[in-house]
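Let us practice reading a record.
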Amino acid sequence: MEPIAAIATPTLPSAIGIVRLSGEGAFSMADRVFRPVDGEKLSAHTPRKMIYGAVLDKNGTVIDFALAVIFPAPHSYTGEDSAEFQCHGSPVVLNELLQALFRSGARQAQAGEFTKRAFLNGRMDLLQAESVVDLIDAESAQAARNAVGQLDGVLSRRIDAIYEGLMAIVSRFYAVVDYPDEDIEPVQKEQIVSTLQKARQQLSELLSTFDRGKILKTGLPTVILGRPNVGKSSLLNALLGYDRAIVTDVAGTTRDTVEEKVPLGGLLLRLIDTAGIRSTNDQVEQIGVERAKAAAKAAALALVVLDGSAALTEEDEAALVAAGQAEKRLVVVNKGDLPQALSQEELCHRFGEIVFVSARDGSGIKSLETAVLSLFPAGSAAPGELLTNARQANAVYRAKEAIESAIAALTAGLTPDAVLSDGEIALSALGELNGKEVREDLVATIFSRFCVGK
């Protein structure tokens, strides 16, 4: 393929900046822009070994002293002849090197084009390619572990096993039909049933990981609700570990939603602090209250904050009602450092699990973490086995639906060709999942999510 080049690191001043080059003629281009200090050409050096030398601009002038390395095809990231230059991280130096490569015949790489070439050249399948951008975008350690597991092929191997089992049945059936004179043992009904049932079970297990995968990738939408001055903003600050929201003794300080992300026991919470829920004549505060209620409807988790040092009020009850709009609710009793006016026994009887905290001194935050994790358990899936986007989940769902249709046809006594037609539909969906069968426009959409240089 034609050579491409790009800056692979952020274009901000930094200690190191990397320029990547890949494609036909990459080594000769690298020789024109890099002069090793030992006098040998870069392309003559041992592959995958860092070489020190001078970086040249398009006029042949030295602009930096840096390291360079070559990767011969097919043992490179893209599967093509490739080179990388590790320069000092000056945006000017990196751009001058890039311009020199353009003058030598390379063109600007498109977003995700290096990884797209790795996919097209068979260095990775589509699931592994998607995991690259997931790894780059990971905002928690668990998300990174799942992404690197997918990059290592954990999910791909599970899909391949299902695909191969179905393919064995479909291919043997057509072999019997197309070559009737050959001594090919026909597929037995029991074997078809066993394979289909096993595939359905495996796909169901995979599909059940999607909710957890979404949370792992994008975070858990979490709204903090309560009447004014119960300590919602103080709780946000305690979870963050710094003062993000303004906290005063004046009720109604928060009038708009305040959003932050915070890691909590492996989960990433997308926290939304809201205006205190109460009746008010203040037009601005009214808007804040409405936004709080809207945030609750969109949340996966609502943390309802109560003031443990005061009796429940109508405004507390209104906050609890609003929290019922979220998928799950957890009652958090704040101000545990003060004399308590709320009965733990009565609260537990009414709301189930209750967490007592003091946002002022941080006590109880660990218990809150435990309670949240119990509401959203990690499950038994190993890192790399979680579906993390709608495309993956949709393909698995369609494959599962086709297999269930095949099982129903088999149970109804239909001929094997009707059953195996559904098997082909399932194979097509799985092929779309890992890239064995995929439309060009879908490939373009997937790789458009990548940054330039990856």
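A brief commentary: The longest strand covers residues 62-71.
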